[in-house]
Amino acid sequence: MRYCVLFPEAQNVHLVKDVGMIPYKLKQLGNYQAVLATYDNGPYPYLEDVVPGLELDFIGKRGDVSRTWRHSAWDGVHYLRRKGKEIDILQVFHMTLSSIVYAYSYKRVNPGGIIFLKLDCSIKLVEKLRGLGRLPMKLLHQFLERVDLIGVEQEKLQQDITEIFPAHRAKIIYLPNGVDFADLERYRPELQDAGKENLILTVARIGSEEKNTPMLLQAFARLVQRGKREWKLVLVGAVASEFQRYLDRFWEQNPELKEYILFRGELASRRELWTEYSRAKIFCLTSNYESFGFALIEAAAAGAVIISTDVGIASELVREGNGAVVPVKDVDALTDKLAEFMERPDLTELCGRSARICREKFNWDEICVKLDRELRKRIMRS
After folding, report:
1. For residue 258, with 0-12 CB atoms within 10 Å meaning exposed, 13-18 middle and 19 or more buried, which class applies?
2. 238 and which of 2, 266, 373, 382 could share a cystine (Cβ 3.0–4.6 Å)?
3. How confident is the model at residue 189 (pLDDT cuts 50, 70, 90)?
4. Phi (first) and psi of residue 358, to 5 degrees
5. Residues 377, 282 within the same domain
6. Is the pTM of this model over 0.90?
7. CATH no. for residue 192?
8. Are 87 and 35 within one domain?
9. pLDDT digits 0-9 by tens, 33-82
């Protein structure tokens, strides 16, 4: 079967997320000729060692895509006009105007083709849908009539979307994102040798508004003031330029914390990233919102206790005592939970529990087997 993920914006980092992993894993199943259709936004070094064999099909640019979404949407439509008949299954993302245009264009050239809509949504989409009027909802229903399968990444959001679109209940499935454990296992021996350390780790675009890095810095400063000086905070990721002014003030007010807080920058190598995940006993995410939160499951897979604000997949990942979920922007709650787990004598055991939970529920191999099964059901009906 010929499977195409249409995502013009794909960069190297997307290859280890759902954009790249789904076609990569489906191709490994042996029954799919899977490609990722994108602009050439390279380089793509992950093609060499993380997703070897993943095929990229580059979309030609017909305008200045930096000016407006219309150019990339038009380029996607032009791609489907040329190649839509050759595509048995088309995967698109998000409930957006681009996806709607892609769906109509694809079905026009290939009426018997299958469309898989991966919502990649957060609670914000649910809130927006519930506020729509009758006419916009009617148009969305017409769009969904052309969609054959709808994947929602969180269990609660699957329930919400089903309540909003009950007529499409049979199409809506729970399909989370995952971890490529084969990639992790390549480094397992050296990671185990390194061992766990008293580290609190975060991986994000440091200082961007939605990541709320000040919440984490404030909580850690309080912990050091309480005497937790045997722990360090490690921040991995590019630092937003607008965050530098806040950092300057923070260091001015807390100069003694420089020996306890380490900024590692953006790590290009998966080996380096897995090493950071594997060293940390605690992974902390303080986002104001997340559609999913890939870093949460990657950290759990590497055996870290998860302490996160109530965003994305956090509440489904944190169970059986392997961490805590705190309210968004609640520095007091975050500080208390970090202190509680830093003092737990069974912290190492809880780290192992996180890894087990992640492997059971967020494994790309098993997720794509389920997707394959659901797609085959739709193909048989078409």
Report:
1. exposed
2. 266
3. confident
4. -65, -45
5. no
6. yes
7. 3.40.50.2000
8. yes
9. 999 999 999 999 999 999 999 999 999 887 655 545 556 889 999 999 99
